[in-house]
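From the pipeline queue, job 12 of 40. The input is one protein chain; the requested action is below.

Action: predict structure.
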Amino acid sequence: MFWLRTRDAANILIRMADIAQTLAADVLEASGLSCLYAEPGAGSVRITIGGIAARKKPGTRLWLRSQKQAERVLAELMASHREARKNARGGLFVAAEPEMVEKMLRVCAGRLGYAISPDEHLDVTLSSLQKRIGKAIDALQSTGQMKKLNREYAALRKGTLLGDIKGTSGTSLPSYSEWLVDRLKKQLPAYTNLANFTIL
């Protein structure tokens, strides 16, 4: 019996860590953080604009504070380098080696006065934010708020509050993790002051 309890506790810790990671990524996504994603091809590099999800793709990413900044850097690159041409599917193709393309992007961003950050900086920011969210979740647990959320989900599973989900009776219930992420988005700012978190 003790082994089962230990395993359940470990599973809960893993689940909370996954939820903290998801929430941290959502916070950065909501901040508007965008990247210039460079994907090498045959004799050229394709550059597109991506969000937080792009960090899981192979290739080079240079991060800016907003999509608008990323769009302006691409426009500057297009205007100042004849090697760049528009791609019909979005973004640009640049006929140059990846290292040279990265240098071009950095120069264009600097010309516009924008700070540009590599993946390593994003990883530090994401890790720091995840730790803060993890502490906030711990605070919710210590004050009994997590128990209230668990009871709320249990009531939803029984169907007593099912009609409250999206205001539609009969809506299917999301998984506990998905539901908890959504609820914690509404709970956490009061505990972590995420509105004042400095991105990169």
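Job complete. The longest helix spans residues 2-30.
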